[in-house]
Amino acid sequence: MTENADSATSDEKIFFYGKIQELPDDVIDTLSNDSVVFGCDDSTLKVLLVRHAEGDSAGEWALPGGWVRYNESVDDSAVRMLQHLTGVHDIYLEQLHVFSDVHRVPHRRIITTAYYALIRPDDHAIAAGFSTYDVRWVDIHDLPELIYDHADIIDMALHRLRHKVRHEPIGFNLLNKKFTLLQLQELYEAILDVKLDKPNFRRKMLKMNLLISSNEKQTGVSHRAAKLYEFDEAVYHELEQQGFNFEI
Amino acid sequence: MTENADSATSDEKIFFYGKIQELPDDVIDTLSNDSVVFGCDDSTLKVLLVRHAEGDSAGEWALPGGWVRYNESVDDSAVRMLQHLTGVHDIYLEQLHVFSDVHRVPHRRIITTAYYALIRPDDHAIAAGFSTYDVRWVDIHDLPELIYDHADIIDMALHRLRHKVRHEPIGFNLLNKKFTLLQLQELYEAILDVKLDKPNFRRKMLKMNLLISSNEKQTGVSHRAAKLYEFDEAVYHELEQQGFNFEI
DNA sequence: TTTATAATAGTTAAAAAGACTATAAGCTTG
DNA sequence: CAAGCTTATAGTCTTTTTAACTATTATAAA
What we know:
Structural class of chain A: alpha+beta
Oligomer: homodimer
Pfam families (chains A, B): NUDIX, WHD_NrtR
Radius of gyration of chain A: 19 Å
Order of helices and strands of chain A: EEEEHEEEHEHHEEH
Protein name (chains A, B): NUDIX hydrolase
Keywords (chains A, B): Hydrolase
Number of helices of chain A: 5
GO molecular function (chains A, B): hydrolase activity
């Protein structure tokens, strides 16, 4: 990052569509970022949306986004916005697509680079102090109407997530560092909208040797506690070098 | 497209890094596109590069690219540039990534959206009349030094191609509409840098039911002529709906 | 007609996927 | 504390797929 994200202290750092005329003077006025932030709660897939309380687009739901500054990359602008929004510093974040239709924003030419991010349950609490807008986790099956082309962006992000999650071990970024095999299975079921066989899923996962079996167990459940596992990034990268292909 | 690509008649429509100060006045001066154009010849994977004859970057190799106009999307700007460069109108083209490091271009802030394109052998001839620069197919294993971050862009494009070609039937866009099974196999071998077993590859391909067996055969070969096949896009999209997953 | 080259067909063993059944562990409630 | 419930975990068996081969056939060219 070009600059410390925490230097951002005011709400204006987050994309405020309703105040589009009052741009800070250190941003490129045609370029924005928008992020589809995924989270998984109660085995349902959710997206983080914001709603502005003032301005032209007050009351309308939108993806969280922000402007790109002259002295930062587009990626950095997205990281900065997300850190400010969620308070989390090691977010899984990937570029999704550039949306640049001439008429995607009325009366303005704004080209946005869309991202998708994966957030762990432990980090679902949203940083407080956002007086000028609502921030909310919304079930992916129950999205409200969104401004501009944001519905298209979510649509593409969901397709990308569904595809990528089957071919690369990125799903782990939607779980806490330590998780049970059933949590992992339910995550896949939520994302892919399928039902999986428990013993087979379990066997397949374990055979890949990508899970570190911790000695800890689940707590606070009213049944036999399952063992907690951790994703082994080091082993994955090693296997990847050797041509290993993660597949669900 | 916002505008007919053929309205472009001069070389200035293609990114001319050496003349960066002499921008047309209908472009967004911070935004460009750059494309990694892949082609497969003699079972080797190649990339289309340009070399400018005049200006600051004369003599240096670069990816073909262009500016984004106010009245077109970034995607359209890439299509326009590629059509002008290759003369081909139905190019397979996908967004790759936005490269936006503050210092990627010296003394200038230029944010580029990178694309990758796949060109069929039949279309490898480059449209004539590019007086101000060289255009050349270069073996992927034998790349010259490139300006700016273009080597990184090719690197990412190659990774993306290698990954995507294994999971989606896009490889066909690097072959002519009609091809033999051995050509297809050699294409995969060239892209993935592996050796495949002929009978097994053949069986696997045919079992997918994605190939229309034409009644035609190869001509001009000094051995038994192989049957020509065509990729069946319609069947693929149907199977895709049903959850079918292309895998090599 | 021989020869070279690649097309195409077939075989077999090992591995993986899929659909199950069975048992064990541990909380909860009467 | 025992019965019952829920989930963890182990194991079986069948079907498919993959992988490594061998064998045969067609065709242009010498």
